[in-house]
Amino acid sequence: MLKRQVALKKRDLYLNQLIAFKDTEPVKVVTGIRRCGKSSLLKLMMQHLRENGVADHQMVCMNFESMDYRGMSVEELYGYVKERIIADKRMYLFFDEIQRITDWQDAVNSFRVDFDCDIYITGSNAYLLSSEISTYLSGRYVEIRMLPLSFKEFLDFHGYNIAEYKSPVGEIRKRVTDEEGNVYELKELFEAYMRFGGMPGIADVGLEQDKAWTLLDGVYNTVVVRDILERDKRRGQRQITDAELLRKIVLYLADNIGNSTSATSISNTLVSKGMLTERKRTGTPAVQTIQAYVAALLESYIFYEIKRFDIKGKGYLSTLGKYYIVDTGLRNFLLGYRNMDVGHAIENIVYFELLRRGYDVAVGKIGDREVDFIATKVDDKRYFQVTENMDAESTRIRELEPLRQIRDSFEKNIIVLDSNTTMTQDGIKIVRLLDFLLE
């Protein structure tokens, strides 16, 4: 059904952010999970520079995943770049996966001071911008947070075009066609997105499950081995040493996206389900140990944590937060594809779509009820409930009531996967999920 694409595809959402900061003082730092497209984004930026008159010899590009740079010290990095600096020319420096160089920030800061240059770096672990490093570069960097493909990008990467048409009853609807003119239902393509996720490499291997799972296995193992287990060794820390415990925590979090979670609940559940045996001398793993493993997963961008916000009290709560996985394809690879868990899966997709659109997102609490998402920007706030359908009266009450209790004038939405109609109830918009994703 879906076709392979190997050409470099644009990611305008992120490329435009880099272009906006071109030739400004801050170091441009692109962060995100492995294989989400960071290296390609640097190539796209280099392509943009060429198209705007920058010569190749004005660009230095180094990918520290390459054996060419294995074992390079920070002093050697500085010397390598210095040799390629052209006097009286603006230089553009691109460093991919730079966290593999110990004390890389020393070289980057020296480049800023010593040369006329514009600097772009990527990293697959939040330790890249840990407190001590971000303090060192304080005020001198801007972070672009990259995610796997949105649904709209997914369609583009696989060679599909969206066109609008008017139905016989006057409704504006969307039709999807491929390069050969074949017509597809949006819903079936969304089901493919739900199953395989948005890792760009899927477009290269095709949406055959065995091939896609092999690619996602590579992503997962690279994140776990290279960005968690090996990273702690390089930092001289020994907190994350049990690969099996780490995997069990990953499976727990993947199985509980959108549920309130704590380190204690993780430990207790793993023991009760027989996934984790109690240890004779120390009992279950200490809460601090579980917290360290979860923190490592957050640093590697495989899971994102969302805090709870008291809408009436106007403050964040220290009670249980929630976790979402960066890609539904990874979740299906880990747990097996389960189409009965659609509610949590679409909630996961909406959360990351809001992040792509630049919102800060929290879970809302109002009285004893919950609002799935509060999305805020400097000049904008919106409330969202997400549900598979609203056919049952009990579901309509459950989704509408928390939004009805909010007394401010900001936009309130219910995003529904299956809905035959869009309408407004008490000022609350009912929005089809596919319409929301393709806005």
User: What spatial order of strands do you see in the largest sheet?
Assistant: 10-9-11-12-13-14-16-15
List low-confidence stretches: none
End-to-end C-alpha gap:
24 Å
Tell me the number of strands. 16
Beta-strand content bin: 15-25%
Query: Percent range for helical residues?
Result: 25-40%
| Number of separate structural domains | 3
Oligomer: single chain
Structural class: alpha/beta
Overall, the morphology is globular
What's the average pLDDT? Answer: 88
Rg over CA atoms, rounded to whole Å, is 23 Å
H/I helix tally:
16
Structure overview:
The chain has helices spanning 12-20, 38-51, 74-84, 104-114, 131-136, 151-157, 186-196, 202-205, 209-234, 243-255, 263-272, 287-299, 328-335, 342-356, 393-404, 433-437, and strands spanning 27-31, 59-63, 91-96, 117-123, 141-145, 161-166, 172-177, 183-184, 303-310, 315-325, 360-366, 369-377, 380-389, 411-418, 424-425, 428-432. The chain is built from 16 helices and 16 strands. 40% of the residues lie in helices and 23% in strands. It is globular and about 70 Å long. It folds into three domains: 12-145, P-loop containing nucleotide triphosphate hydrolases (Rossmann fold), CATH 3.40.50.300; 151-205, no CATH class; 209-437, no CATH class. By secondary structure, it is an alpha/beta fold. The two termini are 24 Å apart. It has an eight-stranded mixed β-sheet with strand order 10-9-11-12-13-14-16-15, with helices on both faces. A five-stranded parallel β-sheet has the order 2-3-4-1-5, with helices on both faces.
